[in-house]
Amino acid sequence: MPNKTLVWTGSEWRDGRLNVFEHQDQKQAAAYIFDGSQWRASRPTPVEFPPVIGGVSASFTAVETATLALPAGVLLGDVVVSVCASYGTATPTPERRRTRRAVTTGASVETEHDPLRTGYVMTLDPTKLHLKVSTFEWTPDKGSAVTWRVSGAKDTNAVVMNIIYRNADTSRLPADPLVDYTTAMGVDRHQLQAGTDHQSLYVAVAISHDLTSARWPAGFTNGIDAFGTFGDMQVHMLAAHTVGAPSSPGVLQLDATVPELGVALITVPGRANPDGHGVWILGDSAASVLGTSTYLE
Q1: Are the beta carbons of 256 and 188 closer than 8 angstroms?
Q2: pTM: predicted TM-score of the whole model, two decimal places
Q3: What is the pLDDT of residues 224-263, one digit of tens each?
Q4: C-alpha angle with apex 54: 56 to 225, nearest 5 degrees?
Q5: How far apart are CA 268 and CA 273, in angstroms?
Q6: Whose CA is closest to 66, among 76, 74, 58, 77?
Q7: Among 91, 84, 140, 146, which Cα is nearest to 114's?
Q8: Inter-residue contact 83 to 161 (CB < 8 Å)
Q9: Is the bond preceding residue 269 a cis peptide, omega within 30 degrees?
Q10: Most-buried pick from 180, 217, 246, 264 (CB within 10 A)?
């Protein structure tokens, strides 16, 4: 819905939009909002399966805070999913950001805000590798980067990944973005947990000497990989997404046996399906049973 402009008449608030001339007719001027790139008359319309616009990742060594820029082209209403894996005794925390704003007196007032919704920590034992997820709706005042405070010590290593989704239903963003997570030890494959509706983002974190790649099940897209050094081993953060379904989308296959593996599931909500039925995954014997989980109309 566009921003609504009101003016105070001395006794009440009234519609403050001006009239403009268009050719020979006079009409009411629409209120516009800036999306970070251009002025537009309305906010983005949610779609059932919000598409990925871009993703970036980076590793950090010997830092107290890890700051990673957002992918280029982020716009008002986009959903940012930021994931941080760090090693140490302290769990990663989104940095509280300070912004300065001008007031009517001409002075500058500093206000503190934290736009991030942060999920519970998944910890891989015994290495104490922590994974934390944050999702939030982007607006121009939130800046062009996400900062994580990873430790109070200088010897902390971290891997950060930022992924942007467009046309998500931001009114339905969960307070805790982490839907589920599973862990395993000494494996080279892992059965992924059942997804939810809309877009399901799976983030796998593995600790290994030998892992170089992984293969997601058919139907996964927009894979993003990140690598970092944790002592004498490497941490691998692998992310990909698929449409949600009430059964496992398949097996994540690794090219080496890893001592420790964790897989987190994050849902990016889209427009509610008007027919109330779930997603039909073609060829899925568990999620596409005619008359039970799938209905043709």
Answers
A1: yes
A2: 0.75
A3: 888 877 767 788 899 998 887 667 788 999 999 999 899 9
A4: 40
A5: 14
A6: 58
A7: 146
A8: yes
A9: no
A10: 264
